[in-house]
């Protein structure tokens, strides 16, 4: 489609694998046929990790002061941090944290100014960024502060989509944080994202229980009876196809997730553990914001940083998904503004499919 969609990519923690994955991705010249790209990070990190990556040609970058100066069909870099900084692969430190903080803030500034259309973020170290004065728990919370709204963390792949009722919260505080109002809101956010970001017309959403065996009728906890089930009922009566609560272990083990467009988990590891086990190279999408933001589903990878073995697949998928969501939102906005042509096309498509089925059945009968 468009060749002028501008994607901002923060390189994350210079001590981690972010820069290496980006270097590997842009060895492929075909990337520049999809969009224009602006990196935010340290040129030192690119130079350092470039020497660790084998095979393929490296695409040179152009230094710019902001994305407003970005050149099309080239890789542009907004320098962040000191130009003479030392790269310590696999070793978290305050200087790396400062670079990660500056990278994210510069990208947010360009996003607010309309200089980039979507944002893809490489992994960060929350402790290093906290020491550098970041002032937010992570990417999700920072972007909520900068762009407003209460974001929903949504893990996505071709196999499943998993949203979280609570995000970065200690397990000991999860139960007290849950309420019927919160779960109804999360179901609504997930339903909205599936429609606007992924083009699902009538999403089917599965909601997980909090306790083992979905509480066993109250023997193992009453959250299902008092909070989660009433929330599902309210959402369903409001027109959202929400079902549950399902005991998490059996739900994933039996493959029940395949029957639904998305799953709402009650807390971080309840959703992410099965997601990362069952679906490689997934993408983290921050929904319910005015902007599009994605990231790979892995961390900084200190144990492999600087060894040239980091897999870029999840980061590449994050770029692709950011583009898909951006375009989907444009289509959905056009649909909302003038739905009649879309309805006619959908009806024609359904009638065509029905005719094809009739012809196939007729041939089988003869």
Keywords for this entry:
alpha/beta, globular, Isopropylmalate Dehydrogenase, 2 domains, about 375 residues, about 40% helix, twelve-stranded mixed sheet, 12 strands
Describe the fold and architecture:
With 366 residues, the protein is an alpha/beta fold. It has 12 helices and 12 strands. Helix 7 crosses helix 8 (223-237) and helix 11 crosses helix 12. It is globular and about 60 Å long. The protein starts with 5 loop residues before the first strand and ends with a helix. Residues 358-366 have low confidence and may be disordered.
Break the fold down into its secondary structure elements and pairings:
Blueprint: E1 6-10, H1 18-25, E2 36-41, H2 43-50, E3 61-64, E4 75-79, H3 94-112, E5 118-121, H4 126-131, H5 139-147, E6 152-156, E7 161-164, H6 174-177, H7 180-196, E8 204-208, H8 223-237, E9 241-246, H9 248-253, E10 262-265, H10 268-278, E11 283-287, E12 292-296, H11 313-337, H12 339-365
Parallel strand pairs: 1-2, 1-5, 2-4, 3-4, 5-12, 7-10, 8-9, 8-10
Antiparallel strand pairs: 6-7, 6-11, 11-12
């Amino acid at each position: 489609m468009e060749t002028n969609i501008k994607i901002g990519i923060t390189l994350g923690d210079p001590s981690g694998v972010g820069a290496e994955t980006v270097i590997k991705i842009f060895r492929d010249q075909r990337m520049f046929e999809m969009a224009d790209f602006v990196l935010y990070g340290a040129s030192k990190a690119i130079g350092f990790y470039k020497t660790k990556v084998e095979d393929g040609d490296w695409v040179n970058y152009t230094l710019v002061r902001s994305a407003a100066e970005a050149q099309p069909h080239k890789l542009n870099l907004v320098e962040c941090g000191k130009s003479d900084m030392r790269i310590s692969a696999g070793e978290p430190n305050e200087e790396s944290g400062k670079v990660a903080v500056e990278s994210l803030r510069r990208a947010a500034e360009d996003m607010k100014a309309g200089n980039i259309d979507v944002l893809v973020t490489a992994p960060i170290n929350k402790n290093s960024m906290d020491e550098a004065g970041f002032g937010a728990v992570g990417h999700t919370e920072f972007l909520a502060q900068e762009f407003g709204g209460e974001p929903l963390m949504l893990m996505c792949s071709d196999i499943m989509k998993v949203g979280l009722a609570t995000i970065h919260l200690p397990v000991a505080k999860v139960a007290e944080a849950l309420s019927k109002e919160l779960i109804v809101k999360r179901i609504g956010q997930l339903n909205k994202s599936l429609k606007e970001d992924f083009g699902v017309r009538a999403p089917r959403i599965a909601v997980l229980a909090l306790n083992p065996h979905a509480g066993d009728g109250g023997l193992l906890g009453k959250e299902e009876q008092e909070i989660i089930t009433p929330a599902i009922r309210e959402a369903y009566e409001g027109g959202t196809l929400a079902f549950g609560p399902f005991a998490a272990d059996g739900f994933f083990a039996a493959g029940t997730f395949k029957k639904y467009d998305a799953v709402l988990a009650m807390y971080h590891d309840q959703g992410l553990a099965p997601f990362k086990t069952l679906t490689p190279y997934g993408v983290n999408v921050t929904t319910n914001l005015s902007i599009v933001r994605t990231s790979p589903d892995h961390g900084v990878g200190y144990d492999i940083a600087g060894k040239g073995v980091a897999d870029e697949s999840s980061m590449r998928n994050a770029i692709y998904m950011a583009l898909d969501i951006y375009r989907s939102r444009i289509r959905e906005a056009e649909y909302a503004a003038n739905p009649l042509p879309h309805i006619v096309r959908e009806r024609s498509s359904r009638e065509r499919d029905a005719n094809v089925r009739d012809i196939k059945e007729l041939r089988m009968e003869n």
